Structure prediction request, 255 residues.
Amino acid sequence: MRRLLALLLLWSAHGLAEQPVLRFSVAESWSMPLVRVEGEQPVEGLLFDLMQAIAREAGARPEYHVMARLRLQQAMDEGDIDVRCYVSTQWFNDRPGNFVWSIPLFQQRDVLVGRAGDSDAIGPEQLSHQAIGTVLGYTYSTLEPLFARGQLHREDSRSQELALQKLQIGRYRHAVSNELSLQWFNRRLPAEQRLQVLAVLEEQALGCMVRNDPALPTQGVLRALVRMKESGEIERITRRYGAAVYSGEVFGVRP
Prediction:
């Protein structure tokens, strides 16, 4: 019996060793519901569940590399990561030649957010000269002209959650957030204390990028994402973190 158990353990360890490794990037600026990091490793969240499922479907072993958002492009160029998720083609001036895009997986809306009690719709061009809460390393294309002429100026935070916390305590009057993170932030607040959506700034299709390397199961990952999308697994993951409240308009649950 002991010999049998030893053989089973040996076979299991050998199987894990044979699995290809997929190195996923995790941006430090992500916060729940996208991901929660403990001890430099992700432990839960929508994107953690997604990356775990990708590795499982592709028959690979995931490794997670937590890094500053501004370091991501360098890591891609130097071959330090294999898969980057939660990314839009709109964020790149030049198509990364050594990475292949997946199919679109999610739809995300970036919104202008006001404090509790702000209920009137207002566009960013109507804001007077002021700071606006932003996330370090994030690009906001619809606001760039306002930044350039000095009508608005950025007050960067290391994460989306921190940017919303600063808005809540009055560090500034307005901030930018993706809608899902705002909904997660508001979920435990009484109605009269919830931050308010004042305007939709832009909507983006998000997906993953996979390094095109013969040593990697690149096509296996891309096919896995197609299967997950078609089977409804991506929708189930997003609904787990509250995307259903948007009636199918955010994070891949559009009918």
Notes: Helices lie at 2-18, 46-58, 72-77, 144-148, 160-168, 179-186, 218-231, 233-240. The longest helix spans residues 2-18. Confidence is low (pLDDT under 50) at residues 4-16, 244-255.
